[in-house]
Amino acid sequence: xxxxxxxxxxxxxxxxxxxxxxxxxxxxxxxxxxxxxxxxxxxxxxxxxxxxxxxxxxxxxxxxxxxxxxxxxxxxxxxxxxxxxxxxxxxxxxxxxxxxxxxxxxxxxxxxxxxxxxxxxxxxxxxxxxxxxxx
Length: 135
Known about the structure:
This protein is 30% helix and 45% strand. It has 135 residues and is α+β, with helices and mostly antiparallel strands. It has one domain: 3-Layer(bab) Sandwich (Archease, Possible Chaperone, Chain: A, domain 1), CATH 3.55.10.10. The strands form 2 sheets. It has a 4-stranded antiparallel beta sheet, with helices on one face. A 3-stranded antiparallel beta sheet has the order 3-5-4. Helix 1 packs parallel to helix 2.
C-alpha cells in the first residue's frame, strides 16, 4: 500500500496503490489526512462509516467526501479505515484522534474531492487510483 503526490498546477493530485480494494479505500483516507494535516492521526477514537453509491468511482468519491465531512464536523483526524467494500457500498470503522492545532496544522485545507479524473484501475494484482483534491 502506498500513496504518492503527483504534480498538478492548482490542486493536490494523489496516486494511491493497494493490493486489495478494501486497502485502497483505507490508503485513500490516509492520503487525504496527509494532505490536510501533514500526517495521519493516531488511534484512540473509533467511529462507524457507511456510504453507498452507484459504482466504484462514485463510491470512492462518497467515501472520501464523508470522511472530509466527519473531519470538519467532528474534528476527527483519521489514522485509518477498516472497511469492507462491496459493489455499491462501503462500511466499516474509522480510527483517529481529536484535532489539536499544535499537532495538526502541518497541512492544507481540502475544500472537496473532484470527480474530474477520478479513476480506479486494476493492473495485475494492484488497484491504482488517481484523485484530485480541491485545496
